[in-house]
Amino acid sequence: MIPKFRAWDEETERMWDIDTWHIADEYVDLIEPGKSIADISAESFWRKQSDLILMQSTGLKDKNGVEVFEGDVVKISDGGNEEDSYTSVVKNYADEGYPAFDIEAPSSWYYESNILATIMGGEYETIEVIGNVWEDGDLINDSKGAEEN
Fold it and tell me: How many CA atoms lie within 13 A of 102 on its CB side?
């Protein structure tokens, strides 16, 4: 799998796809999400890497085929039952000595190992991207409530 990233630009307060990452020069070429550099109507520009918040794709897709990135707020439903669900934030735990993407679950939900991998590998629970922590900050409160249960 080729790593894929997106970027939150605090100056424009927008999420951008990364077209090219110039690692040695420490800048990235940004483009409108879902657009191609070949599309002359696509808004694009470059920005210093240090001025962005970079997020890596998990390589997974939710129940609707939406790619899951770190920083996404996801809704976990038990067997499709909307009433029996919780929200959580996808995190990359590499800095904490746990080299994996994962989410936190309320204590009333039990998982033997990596929660994200368990849900994606199972057939009972579903995961749906409902936003991200930068554009949909109000969803974080629901996520924090879930983590405290």
Answer: 16
| Cβ neighbours of 86 (radius 10 Å) | 21
Count, residues in the chain: 149
Instruction: Write down the pTM of the prediction.
Output: 0.84
Structure confidence by residue, pLDDT tens digits, 80-114: 666 788 999 999 998 888 888 999 988 888 888 88
- Cα distance between residue 118 and residue 130, in whole Å: 19
Integer angstrom CA distances of residue 51 from 13, 42, 48, 70: 12, 21, 5, 18
From CA 64, how far away is CA 75, in angstroms rounded?
12
By the 8 A CB rule, do 23 and 9 touch? no
For residue 124, give the nearest of 91, 76, 59 by alpha carbon.
76
pLDDT per residue as tens digits for the range 10-26: 999 999 999 999 999 99
- Torsional sign, CA 38, 61, 94, 73: positive
> How many other C-beta atoms can be found within 10 angstroms of the C-beta atom of residue 138?
8
